[in-house]
Structures are given as C-alpha cells and as structure tokens.
Design a protein that fits this description.
The complex is a heterotrimer of chains A (82), B (190) and C (734). Chain A has two helices and three strands, in the order βαβαβ. With 82 residues, chain A is α+β, with helices and mostly antiparallel strands. Chain A has a single domain, classed as Phosphoribosylformylglycinamidine synthase subunit PurS (Mth169, Chain: A, 2-Layer Sandwich). Chain B is of the alpha+beta class. Chain B has a single domain, classed as Class I glutamine amidotransferase (GATase) domain (Rossmann fold). Chain B has a seven-stranded mixed beta sheet. Chain B is globular and about 40 Å long. The radius of gyration of chain C is 26 Å and the shape is globular. The chains are: A alpha+beta (82), B alpha+beta (190), C alpha+beta (734). At the A-B interface, helix 1 and helix 2 of A face loops of B.
Chain lengths: 82, 190, 734
Amino acid sequence: MKVVVHVQLREGVLDPQGKAIAGALNTLGFAGVVDARQSKVIALDLEDMDESTARARVDEMCRKLLANTVIETYSVSIEPAG
Amino acid sequence: MVWHADHDLPDVDIVLLPGGFSYGDYLRSGAIAARAPVMHDVIAHAKRGGYVVGICNGFQVLTEAQLLPGALLRNANLHFVCRSVHLQIANPDTGFTCAYGSGAVPQIPVAHHDGNYFADAKTLDRMEGEGQVVFRYCDNPNGSARDIAGIINEKGNVLGMMPHPERAVDPATGGTDGRAFFESLMRGVR
Amino acid sequence: MKTADKAGLEHARAHGLSDDEYNLIVSRLGREPNITELGIFSVMWSEHCSYKSSRRHLRKLPVSGAVVICGPGENAGIVDIGDGQACIFKMESHNHPSFIEPYQGAATGVGGIMRDVFTMGARPVALLNALRFGAPEHPKTRSLISGVVAGIGGYGNCVGVPTIGGEVNFDPGFNGNILVNAMCAGIVETDRIFYSAAKGAGNAVLYVGAKTGRDGIHGATMASTEFDSQTEAKRPTVQVGDPFTEKRLIEACMELMATECIVAIQDMGAAGLTSSSVEMADKGGVGITLDLDKVPQRETGMTPYEMMLSESQERMLVVLKPGSEDEAQAIFHKWELDVAIIGQTTSGGRLVLHHGGKTVCDIPIAPLADDVPNYDRPYQKTPARSVLRPEDVPEHNVAEALLRLMGSPDMASKRWVWEQYDRHVMADTMHESATACDAGVIRVSGTDKALAFSTDCTPRYVYADPVEGGKQVVAESWRNLTASGAMPLALTDCLNFGNPERPEIMGQFVGAIEGMAAACRALDYPVVSGNVSLYNETEGVAIPPTPAIGGVGLIADASKVAGFAGAQAGDSLLLVGDNTGWLGASLYLRECCNRDDGAPPPVDLAAERRNGDFVRRQIAAQAVRAVHDVSDGGLACALADMALASDVGMQVRACNELPLHAWYFGEDQSRYVLAVDPQNVDAMMHHAAKASVPVCIIGLVSDDKVLDFSEHKVALDTLRAAYENWLPGMMEKQ
C-alpha cells in the first residue's frame, strides 16, 4: 500500500529555502508571492495491512526518524487501495 | 574508533562525534547517525555523566539524538560556508573551555551547510540563564539564533559545536587556537 | 567484403558514427552489428573515449621522466615523491553535463575524477578545479556558477576531500559552453599501485558500488557532439551523484587493496560497463564474458543496450585472483555496497554478453579498443598577430587602471566561490584559496614533505597564438608551483577545444600541443595524464581554446613553503625577470581599452627555467619573506595581491624608461616579485648576477597601507573593496 508522509518546518521556524523561492518568484515577475514554505514528501510502499495499523506504524516512523519534531511537523495520508 | 553498527562502546572517558557527512546527511543532517545502533551506548554514556563531544556533524547528531536542545537548520544564505571565524567564549567555566584564558577570542574554522542553530525563544532564554551557551560567533556566518556556535546540556557533560577546534591544533595547518579546547577536556578527565 | 545496409547506416548516424566508421565496423565483423553491439561501438569510437582526432598529436607531448612511474593510458598518472610514496593525479572535463545540469554535472565530475585516482590505489587528498563561464552579464551565467559551485562543494565536501585551489574565468566565448575541469590527487605507497590490465583468463569479474540505472546513457556520445538549441531536450541523460556511496566505495576499495585479491581494477566512467570491461580485457590481452542478468539494477526491464551504456555513478569493476571471491565480496557487504560476480575473463579475445538466456553481443575486442579510427584532420595554422608597442596602447592613470583591473571579473576575489568548498578537511592543508600562495599545498601525512598543486590556463593567449599560448600555460603552471617553493614534477592536462572537423579549430589544437610540448621538454615537466574535450561549440561558435593544466610539485621540507602574505614594512621589493612592457593580449588591453588585439607575450623557456630555479633556491634558503608570480594584470596586480594579503602598503618606482602603463601592466612572462629583508638583498643580487637572472629593486614595503606606484596612490581599503565586492555584487544582485 502507498503511504505519503509530508514533513514541513514548524510555523515560526525560519525556512531560508522557502524564502529564496519566494524571492526568486517575485524576481521573475510573479508579483504577490507573500511567502513560500518548502517541505518534504516521502512516499512509502508498505506491505498491505489494515489502515489503522498502517497509520500507527507510520506515525511511529515519523516520530522516530522521518521528522525532527523539534523543528518539523508531519502529516500522513494513506492512498486508498486499488 | 567504533563502527556504527556496533552495540558496545569500549570503556572510555570521552566520546567524540566528529564532523563529516554521516550517511550523506540524507533526510536531515545527522538524523540517520543519531539512530545508529552504537548511539544507544553513547546516550547511556551521557546519562551516566560521561563526556560527549559533537563537532559539526557530531553536533547535528547530538541534537537529533536529543542529547542537546534545539536543531541545526540550513545556513541562512543557503551556501556551505568554510571560513575561519572568531569565537567569543560565553561560558569559560566548563569542562570544554576552562583552559582558555579570560578574554580569549580563539580563531577556529567552520565548514558546514547546516549550522544555523535554532531553538524557540523560551529554550534560548533558559539556556542562556543556565550558562549552556558556551561559544558565540563574533561575526555570525550562518544565521544562528543569538550567534550561538556551541552549547552544553544542563548537566554540562555533553557539548556540541559547529566550529572545528581539531583543525586548529598545528601552526602549519590552521593555527593553534583549538588546542585549549582539548586541554580543557584533558583537565576535566584527569 | 560485407557492406552496410541503409537502415544500419541510419542507426549508426543516430549514434554519432560516420558512414565510413559504420562501414568499417561491418567489414570488421563481417555482418551488421545488433543494437547492443552498435551502442558499444558508438561509445568506444566516440571522440571522448577514442581520442580519434587528437591521438596522433598527443603523441608529441613528452610523457616520461625520472620521476614518472606511470604516464598517460591508465586511469591517472603517477609520479614518485620519494620515501616509497607516489602521487596519483588527473584532471578531467565535465563540460557538457555541467552546462545542462550544473549541480549534478559538476558533482559527478568531481566524483568521477576521484574514482580515477583511488582506482589505482591512492587515497584522494586534494581536489582542484578550473572553471570557465560566459560573460558575467549573460542571463545564464549566474545560475550556472551557483549550480556548478554548489555541485563541486556538495560532492567534495561530503566525501571529505579538501578542495584547495582552482581558477574561475569569464569570457563571452563560454556563453554557450562552460568549462568544468576537475582535478584530483592522491597519495599511495609505490608497492600498492593497481592497474587496469586484466591479465589471465578464467578470473572472476566483480561489479561493485551502486546499482545500474538508465542515467547518463550516451554521455560519452553527448560529449562528442556540438550543442544546438535541441540540447536542452537531452536533459534526462545527465547522471546523479551520490557522494555517500562514493565515500563508502573509497573505504571499501582501500580495504580490498590491502588484501591480495586484485588482478585489475577500473572505475566505470564515461561509457560505464562498456569501456571498463573492454579496456581491462584489451590491456590484459584477454576476452571477457558478462552475464548481464547478474548486474545489480536499479530499474526494472533494462535492456542489454541500456546496461552497457549506462553511466550510473559510483561503480567499479574488479578482476579477482582465483579463490578470493568470498574475501572480496565480504568487504563490500560490510560497507553496504552492491556487489556481484557478473562474469569472467576468457582466452577468446572477445566481448561476449549474455542476457535472458541469449547471447546478445559477441564481438572481437581488438577493433573496439585498438583499431579505432585515428584521424589526421586537416588543420590551418592560426594567423600571427602583430606585436603591439607600448605607444600603440592608450595610457590610463595607473591608480584607476589598477582599481579597474583588480575589480574585473578575472582578477577579482573568488571568495564567494571557494568559501563554499571545505578546504581543510583531512587536516593536512597548508595552503588553499584563502591563504595567499600561488599553489594549493598539502602536507604529506607522517613525513616532512608537502605537495603543491595548481591549475592554470590563459585562453586569450592561446586564442591569439596557440603555440606561444601553449608554452605559456605550461610555464605558468611550473611558475606557480615554483613560487610556493615546490619542485615541479609533472602535469595533467585537460584540452578543451571546439569542433576538430573545422581546420581553424584543429589548427588551434595542433599549435597548442606544439607549444606545450616545447615547454614540457624545456622545463622537464612531463604530461602523465589528461583528457581531451572537443566539440565545445554552440551553433558554430567555438570556445576560446583552453588547454588547462594541473601541475604537481614536491616541497621536500614542508617548513619552507612560501606564499605572498608575509611581506613586512621595510622589506625591499624585487622584480625577477625582464620587463619589456608587453601589452599585447593583456588584461589591461581588455579591461581598460576594450581591445583584445596584439600578439601575446612570448615565453623564453631558458629564461623561465633560470629565473624559476633561482627563485626556488632563494625560497629554500629562506631568503624571501613573500613571493608571487607575475601573470594576469602584470606587475601592478601582482604587487596588489601581495599588499592585500600582507596588509601592507608599498612604494614602487619603475627601473627602466618604459611608459608607466607598460611598466605596471605589461604581461611579460617568467617573472616573480619578492619581498626581501633588506639585509638579504645584496647577497641575493649577487647570486642573481652569477646565475644570469635579471633582478631589479623596484621599491619597498611601507606601513601606511597605501600603494604608491610612481606617485599614483591607491588606499589599501579602496583596493580591497574593489577586489572583494565584485563577485558577491554580481551573484547577489536582485
């Protein structure tokens, strides 16, 4: 089954890469880009299991490795089977 | 030198996590190394009060392992920076700085891409109050909060710093301003 | 004789082979090649792998000498550095990939050149580069610099090898084709050197490193054709580097090399599995059979054609001694690298490939490697330019001209670039881009020795006169090493030119080789490795000819290394070498007069050697405080460099009758400026006279932080601002 983890910097943590992206977009003439935040998407391919088990396992993976909760938050979305 | 996949640390006084790009710094700097098998023993060593030193990538590993507060973000200008910087010794009474004379402003190189120290304001205030900020940059090269270059934990036995004192121990290759760092450590161990 | 059919010829053209070349293949095989075989021939016979346009000329370069252990033809060159140690080094181009994807192109260039060095047994200890970009104001230049610099740093820093030197130049001639030349040097014990000749049949062929994917297919062919507006569409062929795998590969290979398992070893560079297997078999006089089903693959459904042409990075091929298969594989397992026995050497002299139970390739190896076309391309000598006299060139105020030159793209500080490179990792760096020395210097760990490295080329001289320009690149490299106190040992070259099928471009190539060969011979400075990068053209516009040189020198006593930061107030300033005020093809002419005409400065090779040997002796005797070679921008810029690095002022006067612009900005060759304790001056002048070396006292070092050049004054702070601000200003402009 396919599980997608989004990891983003917490609100209030400086994101210099996002800032550079917003700056570059404005320079290119895309006026009105107030802010940009860069985040990570990690696509996992797991053996099939029921959704609540998967959610619990991936949540643990996020806390133990995929996100650094000092600076990052995460969200998990499980793609429907089929 | 111990292998990352080992489980046992030999009986040592000081564990030093050197610089480098452990596991390519993929995912986040130091993140994967912080979860290597040998880190269980490093954490236990620290909890027993043993000295742990993390330099550059080692500092990143220690924050990822939550032996030190905060985190190290991408440098504010997004570039890797390799430069000799002057450091202010914010706490001269630690086991890592006691051999630096008062008013010393050692010149030590930095070389990193993710050295921009971050912690929330409350944590920073508390650390400053407790003397946990050990080194500050005189001229901040990476955007670190409050010019922080190196910190210790509350007990004072775990230190992380971005500058490389080991690159400043020989007059032929970068000066000798890093020697007092190691002399401080030796005093602490004796 | 079998002749090619029409469909075959069309396939061949799509692979960059000419009709004649394809007909030759068909006649050698006695049949049409299948698609896999065609792919293999096309990369082996590409300009990049075969040197078919350059080979006959490269032979003119001297390649041997007392210190040479291994010259061109192996993965890298090797020189003896005494005490049972050797230095292995090479420079290589990664121009085309870096233009298309600057970060990955430059990064994989660094990775590839490191593999060439550690393949032979040496641990890499130093990286350098030579970068050339288009006009600063060209819309692509900024992003190309950003990407290339980040890529070089991203790879070298991560692997943990210091980047200690290099050069960055700008010229509109590079607008459509940038040059990214990377150099690596390593140190090895002379009895632990490994070669690529897979001698002996029946030995296992071990694949190690990263898995094979579809990346970089046809990189070698791409590096052998001109760019056109469609090149952007070739983007997917650029390969991606993985420095962490490279680091593990280095450590695993070092560990394997400490055993007795290896017959031969070779990295998979351009043309990947094809060139590594063919070259190893050819040099060993054997055949090779591979079972492609055993190749570790990153993607599913890969065809034999794709596997043989893939340029996935961080891979090596090792031929093992019988019985050592398990020991070798265990080492790579420990480092968590892919490893598989994919075939064996044979006595048949053929390259045989199996896939899915079928034989998909069965061709003789000799025509692939040895019988490649060897072209004698027509060439046209570059017309000679007239010699400019000083009075042919407008005279500008010395102070203003100095400020303009020191803040010009080629002269201005490249701090913005080299601060992104880790220059100290491994803790043996004595001199690097930040420390005011004409060479990067690395201490040889555990000895009193040091090695000096420099990369050099002055394309505008080579363009103006390929022969004199060719001499000059070698001489300047030799001079830079000398100015650090080193004895130059040997060099590697990276010959970047346009389309060799155009006689005027071929004329530049032939002329440059002629000049280089003369200089190498006169200076006992042989060529031990290198590469050729042709077809650096976009829509018919060729780059300025750029034979870049990477030089290596030995400093026997590391405590006597010299630099140009040590000048002290009160020191005498001495100029070594003749100053005739040569302004043709000078930076002054370009930056202050907007002209690029005139013959470039000639190099008197005998004087070069005399002057350099004299300077080296003075350094060894510790009679100089600071020493700097005189090159771009002439005497004034050399002195300005020394003043900035030493944080001192200077008072300088001309010691002949030349007009001031010629005296200060002429670019006569074979010159050095020295800062000397006044007590040592008389003895030095005496030694110089005895050695027939022209030396003239031109002034003294002052403590007022002002450069006073014949009453034209520039404050050091003003000069520093001009020098430091240009590149950050350009890169960070909104």
